[in-house]
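[SOLVED] Predicted holo structure with NAP

Edit: marking solved, answer below. Original request kept for reference. I posted the sequence and ligand SMILES and asked for the 3D complex as structure tokens.
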Amino acid sequence: MLNERKVGFIGAGNMAEAMIKGLLQSGASKPENIVASDVREDRLSFLHELFEVSVCEQNPEVVKRADLVVLAVKPQIMESVLIELTNTLDMSKLIISIAAGISLANIESHLKRDLRLIRAMPNIAALVLESATAICPGKHASNEDLKLAKAIFDSIGKTVIIEEGLMDAITGLSGSGPAYLFLIIDAMADAGVKVGLSRDNALTLSAQTVLGAAKLLIETGEHPGRLKDLVTSPGGTAIAGLHTLEEGGLRTTLINAVEIATRRSRELGEMMEKK
Ligand SMILES: NC(=O)c1ccc[n+]([C@@H]2O[C@H](COP(=O)([O-])OP(=O)(O)OC[C@H]3O[C@@H](n4cnc5c(N)ncnc54)[C@H](OP(=O)(O)O)[C@@H]3O)[C@@H](O)[C@H]2O)c1
């Protein structure tokens, strides 16, 4: 079904590039069904050469040519883009916004009409087609619309459907999560260096260990506690390390980090709404 739709991207930056790559690599779409616009000519020629997709400099032209429009500009640019597109966006198009912190109500208030809207929050791992994405439907989006949006984000990773009220929690967990894990990987690499490994080897091994552990958990569907039990032998090394992590409050620290990032996301959203 997605294969037959024309997908338009307003803004041809990092996220649009990741999404186009995912759509094409997974076979969910074809180059002739994708069109993108941007203010930067270099981005347009880059995407055209890399993926053989259509490009144009006019945002309204993309909307006219697409069945499904992805709003992929920075949140600060959103208002001017919505004003520019007011007369072209209508109920015949499915509109997906990936702009962080911009609510469905905010978009609706700018466009002043009923629209089939979906809000999405992918993360930076979209660049390697491993995004953790949450999507939520606006009041006029149908189940079919939601399925189409899910198919798009499934092509760049894993997708969950949530209520909009949980978007700040998503920002705190999977939106900001890559930053937490980069810190953990860096710290593990430091630890490797402290116990005698070269920096290169320590970083390679710590990043691969995080990737491998996540993959094992996802592919086996096992509870993380059970996998932890599997790798801890009585009186062994892993349980000694785990004891130290619990003593240092790693679990509580991570819970606090997600909670505080969720709160910060809510504050930033409120500030943006006031503007
Ligand atoms: N990157 C992430 O990890 C991530 C994660 C979740 C959500 N998001 C959301 O995804 C959206 C896109 O992020 P991104 O990282 O892809 O940003 P980006 O790389 O900066 O891409 C946005 C593109 O839009 C262009 N642009 C600016 N004004 C425009 C206009 N009026 N019409 C058309 N194009 C215009 C920008 O050009 P200039 O560079 O000249 O401004 C840029 O090429 C943002 O709203 C962000 O909140 C990003």
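OP edit: The two ends are 39 Å apart (CA to CA). Thanks to everyone who chimed in.
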